[in-house]
């Protein structure tokens, strides 16, 4: 599995011949909006920074779109959407946390989650997490300190911060207590993450 970051909340996950887009950026966003063909697109929040599904129809591919809580199966991939809330963009809205099972690994994106206090039923829905994608900027999403606290409380194998700038990332890493050099993409297999405990991985944006 290869994970590439495109800024904001957007990740491309590739495995075999399939491409999964997590919260793709819309052309109406203030962020740069890449365009490529995806097989499946997940949208956590109806906001231009996260719902650019039109950008994922390219090269003959039309993505299967998942938007909202529920359980889904598409192209051999199992996805669970869990209800939460967000204040991102200035108003209260439904934010969907997604758990995706890929090659035996559980990848979870918290989307534009605002509160670091998740109800017990949400935590129970998610269970064990291998790779956790967590916003760490504030401005309607988790601030860096809350992001780190919440992320580590899940005890995932790998933590990847998203939707951050230089300052918020520095605060997040200070909470971690270690320096982390950014990498261009994460290539990982199930056997690679066994034994890791909350390892923070910082991905450079492929658009920077």
From TrEMBL:
InterPro entries in alphabetical order: RibonucZ/Hydroxyglut_hydro
Pfam families per the UniProt record, alphabetical: Lactamase_B_3
Name recorded for this polypeptide: Lactamase
């Amino acid at each position: 599995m290869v994970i590439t970051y495109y800024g904001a909340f957007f990740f491309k996950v590739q495995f075999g011949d399939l491409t999964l887009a997590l919260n793709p950026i819309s052309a109406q966003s203030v962020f740069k909006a890449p365009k490529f063909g995806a097989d499946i697109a997940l949208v956590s929040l109806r906001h231009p920074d996260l719902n650019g599904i039109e950008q994922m129809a390219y090269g003959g591919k039309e993505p299967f779109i998942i938007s909202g809580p529920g359980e889904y199966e598409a192209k051999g991939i199992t996805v669970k959407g869990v209800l939460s809330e967000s204040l991102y963009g200035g108003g209260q809205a439904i934010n969907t946390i997604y758990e995706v099972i890929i090659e035996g690994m559980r990848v979870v994106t918290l989307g534009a989650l605002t509160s670091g206090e998740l109800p017990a039923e949400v935590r129970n829905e998610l269970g064990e997490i291998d790779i956790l994608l967590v916003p760490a900027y504030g401005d309607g999403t988790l601030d860096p300190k809350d992001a780190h606290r919440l992320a580590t409380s899940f005890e995932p194998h790998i933590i990847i911060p998203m939707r951050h700038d230089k300052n918020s990332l520095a605060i997040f890493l200070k909470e971690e207590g270690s320096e982390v050099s950014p990498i261009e993409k994460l290539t990982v297999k199930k056997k690679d993450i066994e034994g890791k405990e909350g390892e923070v991985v910082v991905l450079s944006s492929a658009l920077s």
